[in-house]
Amino acid sequence: MLERLTRYRRDLHRIPELDLDLPETTAYIRSVLANLPCEVFSPEGHAVCAYFDCGKPETVAFRSDMDALPICEAVDSDFKSKHPGKMHACGHDGHMAMALGLAEVVAGLKSKLTKNVLIVFQPAEETTGGARLICESGVFKDKNATAIYGFHLWPDLPMGVVASLPGPLLAQSNEITVDFTGKSTHIAKSEDGADALLAMARFVVEADQMLSHLKSEVDPASTLKFGRVTAGTVRNAIAAAGHLEGSLRVFSSEAFNYAWDHLHEIADRISKDLSVGIRITKSDGYPPVINDRNLFEDAEKRIPELQKLPKPLLIAEDFAFYQKTLPGLFMLLGTGTGIPLHSDRFNFDERVLDRGVEIYTKLLPLE
C-alpha cells in the first residue's frame, strides 16, 4: 500500500489549492473513490464524502482536510507544487493520502464492519473553518454518525508515534484587536492632549498581569499575547491613535469569558484615567478541540502504543466544530522531522502514511 499512498500524496502535493476553491483536488479524490464500493457526494458543495453503506444503523466518520497554504515552496523535488505561491505546507496532502488509503481498507473489510463508514474530505481548514459548513449540512445526522476521528501530521513527535489527550487538546483561538483614540498635541503641551500610546502601553502591561490571574485561577494552559502595534506620527507629538493586535488562546468558555470581561475592565479604567477612547473587538475563531474521553479510552485499548501528551497545545484546529456536533477524537501522528508546520520547507518521510492507515484501521468497528 505504501507505493499507492506515496503516489496519492505526491500527486496531491503537486496541485495545492486554497480555501473552498479546490477543483483539481476534489476531482483527484473523486477519481480514486470512483473505483470503490461507496457513495461519493458533496454535502455542502465543496467537500467530498465517501459513504460505505454496510447496512448498519450507525456510522463512524473519519476526516481529512484538503486545502493548502499561500506559500512559495522552497524545496526542489519531482513532486514540487505546480501552482506558484501555493503549497501543501501543513501536511494536508498526507492527510488526504491516508484517508484514501483508509477508504481502500474499508472497501476490503466492508462485510466485517459493524457500522457504516463515512470519510470526509474537508475544504477551508486553514481559512474559514470548512468543518462548520459540513456540520451545518446535516450529513452526520442523515448518516446517523456516532463518532468522528481525525489526524494531524506532527513534526515534533518521533516518526510513527501517535499521541493525544482526553479532554482539552487544542486551544480556542480568538484574534483580539484594540483601538485607542486620543488627542494629539506637541509634547511641550502634553497636558492638553490625550495620549493613545501611553494608554496602549498600560493596556499591554495590565493585560499581561490579567493573564497571570487567568492562568492561576481558571485555565493554566491559556495565553494572551500582542504581536503588532502602531501609534503616532512623529516623535515629538502625543499619539492621537493607536492600534493593537494580538491573540487569545483558551480551553474553555469560562476562561474566555474571564479574559474578555477583564480586558474590558482594564480598558474602562485606563480610559477614565487618560481620557482615551478604547474599543476591543475579536474574531470568532475556532472553538477548542476537546476530545471525547470515552473515545480516548477506547482508542487506548485499540492502540496500546497511543501516548498522552504532557499538556494541551496552544494551536487551533477546526476539527473542534465536529466535536460540537458528535463525539470526536483528534490525534497527532509524528513525522520526526522537526520542520515547523507552515514552513516553505515542510516535508516528511512518506513511510508515516502507512502508519496512519494502520492506526485508522485499528479504529474501525470490526466484528
List keywords for this structure.
34% helix, 367 residues, Peptidase_M20_dimer, 23% strand, alpha/beta, Bact_exopeptidase_dim_dom, 8-stranded mixed beta sheet, 4-stranded antiparallel beta sheet, Alpha-Beta Plaits, hydrolase activity, Aminopeptidase, manganese, hydrolase
Quick gist of this model?
By secondary structure, the chain is α/β, with parallel strands linked by helices.
Structure description:
It contains ten helices and 14 strands. The chain has two domains: 2-170 and 288-362, Zn peptidases (Aminopeptidase); 172-282, Alpha-Beta Plaits (2-Layer Sandwich). The strands form three sheets. The chain has an eight-stranded mixed sheet with strand order 1-2-4-3-5-14-6-13, with helices on both faces. Helix 1 (2-13) packs antiparallel against helix 3 (92-109) and helix 3 (92-109) crosses helix 10 (351-362). A hairpin with a 6-residue loop joins strand 1 and strand 2. It is an alpha/beta fold and 367 residues long. It is elongated and about 80 Å long.
